[in-house]
Write a structure and sequence with these properties.
α1 packs antiparallel against α3 and α1 runs antiparallel to α6 (154-167). The protein has helices spanning 3-22, 27-69, 75-88, 90-115, 118-135, 154-167. The protein is mostly helical. The chain is 78% helix and 0% strand. The chain crosses the membrane at residues 33-54, 61-88, 94-114, 151-172. Residues 7-109 form the Prepilin type IV endopeptidase peptidase domain. Belongs to the peptidase A24 family.
């Protein structure tokens, strides 16, 4: 088995339980695993592996940071995907983000149907899209934390990253 898959599995497992327990993913978890991803890639594949890992970490961080600026994810999620990028590379991390966001949408949809909030949420989304279209005001699309549906993002990240690893695979640096 590829060492990166083992490292990623351990990281995702610990992050899952941490997020379920506290709804936070602490730096004391993300930073060491990001560093381990960079070091392991560098040891296995030299400079190419080092750059592969840094690229995955940087691109993943930037994309998730943009989502953080819109209050769509928390700061821990930004660092989580930076570490995933450092361990698994850019492609696996980007697909992991995409699948995680899709799984989060499905989870939210199920929750809204269960709580009978679907019509209210669709109305909110429609109003935001109209404001953006008419007034070109992207700030109106910020998530209102008081009315947002909250659940541990790791509920979506676990199947999202697993799908990414299965469908895309973890590339070697």
């Amino acid at each position: 088995m590829n060492f990166s898959i083992t490292l990623l599995s351990i990281f995702i497992g610990i992050a899952f339980f941490q997020d379920i327990k506290e709804m936070k993913i602490p730096n004391r978890l993300t930073v060491p695993f990001a560093a381990a991803g960079v070091v392991c890639s560098a040891l296995q594949w030299g400079w190419e592996g080092f750059l592969f890992s840094l690229q995955g970490m940087a691109i993943s961080f930037i994309i998730m940071f943009v989502l953080y600026l819109f209050s769509a994810v928390g700061a821990g999620d930004v660092k989580l995907f930076a570490a995933i990028g450092a361990i698994a590379g850019t492609e696996c991390s980007l697909y992991g983000m995409m699948y995680s966001i899709l799984f989060a949408g499905v989870i939210a949809l199920i929750y809204w149907v269960w709580k009978r909030l679907l019509v209210k949420q669709l109305r909110w989304f429609y109003e935001k899209v109209v404001v953006i279209y008419l007034f070109r005001n992207m700030q109106s699309f910020r998530v209102n934390q008081d009315t947002a549906t909250h659940f541990p993002f790791m509920l979506a990240v676990v199947p999202g990253v697993a799908s990414s690893c299965i469908l895309v695979g973890i590339q070697a640096g």
